[in-house]
Design brief:
The structure holds two protein chains of two kinds. Chain A has seven helices and ten strands. By secondary structure, chain A is α/β, with parallel strands linked by helices. In chain A, helix 3 packs across helix 4 and helix 3 runs parallel beside helix 5. Chain B has two domains: about 170 residues, no CATH class; about 100 residues, no CATH class. Chain B is built from twelve helices and four strands, in the order H-H-H-E-H-E-H-H-H-E-H-E-H-H-H-H. Chain B starts with a helix and ends in a 6-residue tail after the last helix. Classes of the chains: A alpha/beta, B alpha+beta.
Chain lengths: ~230, ~300
């Protein structure tokens, strides 16, 4: 996979049912190690944008490339390989309710292939659970977790596989301050390790204290602030 | 291991429906097993009815060279007829039993069941003996179509008045057994179709219950095979449990079944026992059908 650009969007648009256009000619390029906040009001199109990056959907128009591969044209096996290096934290948390907290993490590790398997994966899973206050609930079924706990587990699940691209949609929405900073710390560590991170958030405190590049989504358009400095809004 | 746990999701969410489906699978498999056993047991019975025959060649009451009072001459004439019959049978003569029954022997047999009748016949004197039949009995296994040829030859023979055979008596029974065998085959096929249809519908329901997990697995980069496995295994468990129910039912009921069938009629007294191995086949059939149903609906799991 190409390491020059991790994410490339060229005139990407997305509409539903042929009529409802939610994204309009987006242009974006993210390189390895970039950290981007995506800001915008409710209904601006942030979640749709992040779902495209997470390969959950394809654009209606334009070209979307991840690691140099055009998602609309790549093979299923290539798409599968891309998904194995992406860690996605959706806004609507999807855990596997029939598995325990630990099993949800370990299955993510297993599906990531050789990148994070075996003892290394177990060690990392334990560390993440400890940092996120879930270690005592490791054997409990994921369906028994509260909303905040499920969100933390979703973040842990995304990061345990050492992804090259992290996409998080409102990852701290249901967290108290302590866990909010724990989660942001994990994203920053992943970024420091070389992962490209995209975080959608409303939390101005986070943006103010963890200064990174911003992109503002409004009415389906994406305005990316120039340079890599902190965003101003 | 994780996928194994996932495969039990339908059992957690809709356990009663899974168990009841397994019971229906077991019932249908059991019925198919019973019908198949009856159908396969009828085949040797039919063969036996068609091959084993008793042909009775009734000798003419008064031969031109025999008088009622000259029994020794009558015996010689009957012996000549028997020799003619043996010659006409050819190689089949070695496989059959040829026996002559004269008038006295016939009355002796009749006396067992109808002693009064025999007394009345004897009271008639020489006229009574004239109506008592003499016959030659030919019994055994004939080759296909062999019995009909023998009957034709006997009818054309001098000294033979008429010919009767057990084939004529059992013709309707053989026809009924053939029709029953065909009917059973159709029923077994119908039950099989119903079973597969039911399992495929259950598989679709189970695939729906797995949709949440499938979307997560897809997101994490699971291969198509891994994504199909929970659905396939879910259906396999239902099929295996149903096969297990059928196998247990078969083992418990096979003796009783065999007894009931053999007591239906003297013709069924030689019906084969219900084999124990059928239980293993029922279990395997359940597993296989469950697996096939799971495979049939899981092919759409890997979407982009």
């Amino acid at each position: 996979m190409s390491s020059a650009s991790v994410v490339t969007l060229k005139a990407v648009s997305k509409s539903y049912f042929g009529q409802l256009q939610v994204l309009d000619r987006l242009e974006l390029e993210l390189k390895k190690g970039d950290f981007l906040y995506v800001l915008g009001g409710t209904g601006a199109g942030k979640s749709s944008f992040l779902r495209l990056l997470a390969t959950e959907e394809l654009p209606t128009q334009g070209e979307l490339r991840l690691f140099g591969y055009d998602l609309a044209r790549c093979s299923k096996s290539t798409l599968r390989s891309i998904r194995q290096v992406v860690g996605f934290v959706p806004q609507n948390i999807k855990l596997i309710p029939d598995l325990s907290v630990l099993d949800n993490l370990m299955l993510s590790v297993q599906l990531a292939g050789r990148r994070a398997s075996g003892a290394q994966g177990r060690s990392r899973a334990g560390e993440l659970l400890d940092r996120l206050g879930l270690v005592e609930k490791r054997e409990r079924m994921a369906s028994t977790l509260s909303g905040g706990e499920a969100q933390r587990l979703a973040v842990a699940r995304a990061l345990v596989r050492c992804p090259e691209l992290v996409i998080a949609d409102e990852p701290t929405g249901a967290q108290d301050r302590d866990f909010t900073w724990s989660l942001m710390d994990l994203f920053l560590r992943a970024n420091t390790s070389g992962a490209t991170v995209v975080v959608a958030t409303h939390d101005r405190e986070i943006i103010r204290r963890v200064r990174k590049r911003c992109a503002i989504m409004k009415n389906g358009n994406l305005h990316v602030e120039e340079g890599s400095g902190p965003c101003f809004f | 291991m994780f996928l194994l746990k996932l495969s039990f999701r339908p059992w957690r969410l809709a356990g009663i429906s899974q168990v009841s489906s397994a019971l229906v699978v077991g019932l249908l498999l059991s019925m198919m097993g019973v019908f198949y056993w009856i159908q396969s047991g009828l085949t040797p019975l039919l063969d036996q009815l068609q091959s084993d025959e008793v042909i009775l060649a009734y000798l003419t009451p008064s031969s031109p060279s025999v008088t009622l009072s000259d029994e020794q001459v009558g015996e010689q004439e009957d012996q000549k007829i028997m020799d003619s019959i043996r010659v006409s049978l050819g190689s089949q003569a070695e496989r059959v039993e040829i026996r002559r029954v004269n008038g006295d022997q016939f009355l002796g047999q009749l006396k067992v069941a109808y002693p009064e009748l025999v007394r009345e016949i004897l009271d008639l004197g020489p006229e009574g003996k004239a109506v008592v039949p003499r016959y030659v009995s030919i019994s055994g296994s004939f080759a296909m179509g062999g019995a009909a040829k023998v009957i034709d030859r006997l009818k054309a023979m001098n000294g033979v008045d008429s010919v009767a055979s057990s084939h004529q008596r059992f013709e309707q029974v053989v026809g009924a057994f053939r029709a029953l065998r065909t009917f059973i085959a159709v029923v077994v096929i119908g039950l099989g179709i119903a079973l597969i249809t039911g399992l495929v519908h259950l598989a679709k329901t189970n695939a729906f219950l797995h949709r949440e997990s499938l979307s997560v697995l897809r997101q994490w980069g699971a291969s198509g095979t891994l994504m199909r496995l929970p659905s396939i295994l879910s259906c396999f468990w239902v099929g295996a449990l149903g096969g297990g129910f059928a196998a247990i039912g078969w083992l418990l009921a096979r003796s009783w079944l065999g007894l009931r069938v053999r007591n239906l009629s003297p013709l069924m007294s030689q019906f084969p026992h219900a084999p124990v191995s059928t239980a293993a086949f029922l279990l395997l059939a359940g597993m296989l059908l469950g697996l096939m149903a799971g495979l049939s609906t899981s092919s759409g799991a890997e979407e982009r």
